[in-house]
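Recap for those who missed Tuesday's class. We walked through two folding examples back to back. For each one, the amino acid string is listed first and its predicted structure tokens come directly after. Nothing is annotated here on purpose, so try labeling regions yourself before you check the end of the notes.
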Amino acid sequence: HGDTAKAERQAFVNEGGCMTGPAKIVVRYQNGSMLKGYAQDFSPGAQYFHVKAEGAKTSAPLTRVVMQELKAVFFVRDFVGNGSYKEGKSFVPGKPLSGRKVEVAFQDGEVLVGTTTGYDPTRPGFFLFPADDRSNNVRMYIVAKAVKSVRFL
């Protein structure tokens, strides 16, 4: 188990996941609920991490987030996003990519398209970088348990 956690942490760093400070995130649970805030100690190999809710007072307690209850963790540019923007599901022709192109279909029917360098079906999750450069999502940590299928493009 220790080797798996170590491999997960290394994949996190390799995929740009090194956190130098609290990261803006939107946590989406498998039950459909959502939490916006700042990740305090996110690590893909961990069973849980803590979030300081958006707008919470400095003294407010952190929310404990259990990884296996999640659909995905979205590392975002801002919490508001652009509700009228329709995120593209295709890649810019000729633009260099890091990783393999992939389509991820969730149990709830949502489909995301992006690239990944660390997909391994035996791991509890993987990072996905959106195909659309203008996406509000910088990267997403996808929890494998919430995924229906992964298709390489």
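Example two. Treat it independently of the first, because the proteins are unrelated.
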Amino acid sequence: MRLDGAASVSVLSRQIGSRENPTTRDDSSRYWRESCDGWCEVAESETPGHGPALKRVIGPGLLLLFIVGDILGAGIYAVTGQMTAQVGGIAWLPFVLAFGVATLTAFSYLELVTKFPQAAGAALYTHKAFGLHIVTFLVAFAVICSGVTSASTSSSVVAGNLLAGLDETFGRENGLGWFDVPDGGTAELLVAVGFIVVLALINLRGVGESVKFNVVLTLVEILALAIVIGIGFAAAARGSGDGDIRNLVIFEDPNDKGWFLAITVATTIAFFAMVGFEDSVNMVEETKNPERIFPRTMLSGLGIACLTYVLVVVAVVAVLPVDYDSGDEGILLHVVRVGAPSLPIDEIFPYLTVFAVANTALINMLMASRLLYGLGRQGVLPPILGAVLPRRRSPWVAIVFSTALAVGLIVVVDRFAQSSMVAALSGTTGLLLLVVFAVVNIACLVLKRKPGRGFFVAPTWIPVVGAAVCLFLVGPWARTSEQMIQYRIAAGMIGIGVVLWVITYALRRRAHESTGFTDVESLGDDR
């Protein structure tokens, strides 16, 4: 899962060269020329009413890489084991269905972003469609919460894999015998919290170099999944491993929900792995010939991600029995261990996972802090959230607040969740974004009746079906009893935002100041 409201490349590229002056674009242009290495071009253009501006024109190769990188990430590591536990070897089917849901909503996003190409994303579309400040705020804060829950999910995945990697490398039993690597819930909790704190420090320092770093980590993500797929297919060809490729058509229903509801539950789980496409639409103004290549490239990116996930499930089923319990380390690590026991790949793979998932978490915490900063700057939330460090221009109060929210979330969920932390938090992320996507689909329908420029128009039936399916997947029938905690987590986080909004509203009303958004279009822009 990546950030909504401002694409990773858009937000990060605006920060390049901004540590001394956040409005300077020349350094950003120079960086892109040096780092794109032929993938993209940079040209200057005039922005009416704003003087000279830099127009970054991204080629199809880099665009596809970023779209695939936006979707791939913590999701596949977090949910694959959950899905096989829900439906058995047919776990590839929920990925395909989640791809279908994501594609429907992607059509709505493509239409809306060509009409309103600003970085505010879902909040802007909601405001343009309904004009209700409270609804706009709820959508914006739901996006913030989804970023925090996604980063918290990533922190748990990082903790499990980092401890497993350290044990393989340095542990007394499996590694060099240097020391005993702690395991269990307490150790993973401490590592997860520590990881979130490290992300905050990186965020405070500034992320000007993260555009190139994002590309590198995207390649690491692809490499790690390619290793899993390769090992799985090799095991299937040799007939080794403990799995059976024939299990791909075997449906299991341990919760006795029936095939329809069981597949529905698994689809809501898989949906966490398909989000991220919504961020990429915000690169439309930076894309060369967007009318021709952007919709095609975005939908191709979704298809590549779906195919990758299906191949990963095939690898899992080929190597492991469908009832395999991987614990908190993640099922993909066990595919590597069981499928290639004679190779030292299992010593390296946990670290590849850490780097791949860390990229997701960093971008999500970046998004959450920037949107909090935007809400504070516009007076919708306490203005102190708009405070920045004098030299680095990092929104330090928003970073501290989002970090505290993530740490508190990790501790509370670890204490009260009946299921694993990863299952509870990834499911909550999916729940929040399903609500946001339903609103975006409805907004697309409303805005079809209003004139506006745009080079992509989705057929009317697509947002209708998209909204209906998203709302269906939000319902309690799409969750097991253990997953009902998702509603409490989401409600608690949204409740924090509503309390802050009410306090800010009351104080501004008493001071006879504006109580709504002053410029929704700039909400996702951290300049």
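Answers for example two:
DSSP finds 18 helices and two strands in the chain.
Residues 8-522 form a domain with the Amino acid/polyamine transporter I fold (CATH 1.20.1740.10).
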